[in-house]
Design brief:
- The complex is a heterodimer.
- By secondary structure, chain A is α/β, with parallel strands linked by helices.
- In chain A, 36% of the residues lie in helices and 29% in strands.
- Chain A is built from 7 helices and 10 strands.
- Chain A is globular and about 45 Å long.
- Chain B is of the alpha+beta class.
- Helix content of chain B is 52%, strand content 17%.
- Chain B has 2 domains: 166 residues, no CATH class; 232 residues, no CATH class.
- Chain B has a 6-stranded mixed β-barrel with strand order 3-4-11-6-8-7. Chain B has a 4-stranded antiparallel beta sheet with strand order 2-12-1-13. A two-stranded antiparallel ribbon of chain B has the order 9-10.
- Chain B contains 11 helices and 15 strands.
- The chains are: A alpha/beta, B alpha+beta.
- At the A-B interface, helix 1, helix 2 and helix 3 of A face helix 1, helix 8, helix 9 and helix 11 of B.
- The structure holds adenosine-5'-triphosphate and magnesium ion.
Amino acid sequence: MTIIKLKNISKKFKERVVLNNLSIEISKGDMICIMGRSGAGKSTLLNILGLLDTADSGVYEYNNKEIDSGNESLKAKLRRDKIGFVVQTYALINQKKVFDNIALPLYFKRKNKREIKQLVESISRKIGIFELLNKYPYELSGGECQRVAIARALIREPDIILADEPTGALDEETEKEILTLFEKLNKQGVAILIVTHNQMIADVCKTVYLMSEGKIAQLK
Amino acid sequence: MILHILEKSLNVKRNRSYILLFQFVITLILVITVLNIYISVEKSVDHLENVTKGLYKVNDNFVGDSERQFFSQTDNVNILKKLYSWQLSRDEFTYIVVGSQYFHAENNYFPNKFDIFYGSRHDPVGSYESLQVNNAFIEHFKLTVDEGRLFKEEDYHIDNEFLPIIMGYEYIPYSDIGDKITVYYLGKSFESKIIGFLSENSFYNDTYNIKSLNKYILMPALKTTNVDSNTNTIIDWEQKKFELKLYLDKCSGFLYSEFPSTYLQNMFTEKSYELDIVPYALEMHAAFYPTMWGLEGKHFEKLLFILTIIIFASSIFCISLNMAAKIKVLKRYYSIYIMNGTSSKVIYLSILLEILIINFLALLIASMIGWILYGKLPLMPLSLIYVITCVVSGIYPFFMMNKINISRILRGDD
Ligand SMILES: Nc1ncnc2c1ncn2[C@@H]1O[C@H](COP(=O)(O)OP(=O)(O)OP(=O)(O)O)[C@@H](O)[C@H]1O
Ligand SMILES: [Mg+2]
């Protein structure tokens, strides 16, 4: 079952063509890796997939329905309920406790307190960060921060997690742990797309794309 | 959702919010202050223009022999009465009685500073500046009382038990409403009674000067119709002597008219000939404007207006800068919010709401301070300024929000 389908996407920044008539399809159960030189346009592609950015031309389909790029509230709703985003810098709010960081998408959804508490606790148990819930992000290690970010991505019960160099700032040991976590989530049915420079991650993924000159080519 | 973001934005950079609030308050207080000056200047400019334009002094021309002859005939009072009632009845102008004669009270009733002769020529003699006035005078110079009341219709009758008088503002510490004073006016004694005190800074235009009424005593322009019928006794003679002086005083008042001066003068000349007296002459009042910093009336108003706009514009500029700085700090959070399911539109709305709330708080605080400082508020301009401030300070954040580059921020570059 297709989750996201991009058809003939192009994107320019000023005169520089970053995505050139690119098409990609992500289905349920996929575990995809995208590699490529720095500046190849990987993050740009990921942002378009995650509805944080808009392509200049081409079609974006979610669950086989075309999403109008001007429909901001629908896009916000998909980001809130369906698409989890994980980035290299974690993107956590330092002034808020881990608990509130994880619960953020639920706050936007206006769930009641009890429900939120239950969900946050069960997710954090699953990921092994239950003890951290009352701490602040600046008190955590990089690996712990990334787990919190992943927990936040998971709390909305997403169809897909988009991860932009999620282990870029972590040591090898932690990197393995995070990767194992992704594999586990994938087995539970969440589609995962990871942008990385790391061969080890590519080895684990079922599908690998190489990106260059605004296009992608499947390696595996 | 908006509220969640709003709470966040207010909490995360709390001192920024306080600075914003402070800026709004200062702006509004400055605006209130300048507007207050502006409004009071405008009012006094208007008022001064009003008490000058179209105002004439009516002068009698009794001099030398003609004067002596005229006053030896006490029956001439009837001529003056005719002139007086003619003056009151004309539609071409409003006749204002401004009779300026001394009031004399025994035993230096009031402190020396009120005595006209004290310090200049003599020891204090108990003479005080007074005006006999009619209602037209009170209306034209917009007189109000600080305490008590103004003259009523029945106060103008001469045979009242008491002569009602209204005291200038400075008399307040030395007398009370209801005080009874024996006074001499044009050689006749009256039992007078204080019925009111003028508001501070009451004034009138005496043809050449703006005169404060703070040290004046006002009495009603007395009607003496009831003595007309009797003629030949001694008492009548005394009475007529008094009336002659009284009416001479009454007839040389002011008139207010929109007719050209030559036309008015012709009316008076004609009437004088008809009554067989030396023609009364009209004299125009001198114009006065308040001056400040060497600027006169309207120019000063203009300056204040420009000043208000400059203060307002620079404050808006500062507020926008501060708002921008706040957004710059918060835009990482905004990116995180957007990544987790809000839209930039919602975030912008929350920023607007924040501006609205802070500005409203500032409005309340500034209004309170303004009220304490000035006792009144320019409500219309203030609400207009509130709306403009909200709108204008919402423009810059709007452009900032549109420029937020989420991917760079999340990458940590921005
Ligand atoms: N908002 C932007 N405005 C202008 N140019 C941009 C913007 N975002 C990306 N670019 C440019 O587009 C190109 C692709 O950027 P992108 O971030 O997608 O590369 P990447 O493949 O993710 O690189 P890296 O591996 O270093 O993360 C780069 O040349 C970058 O400078
Ligand atoms: Mg990148």
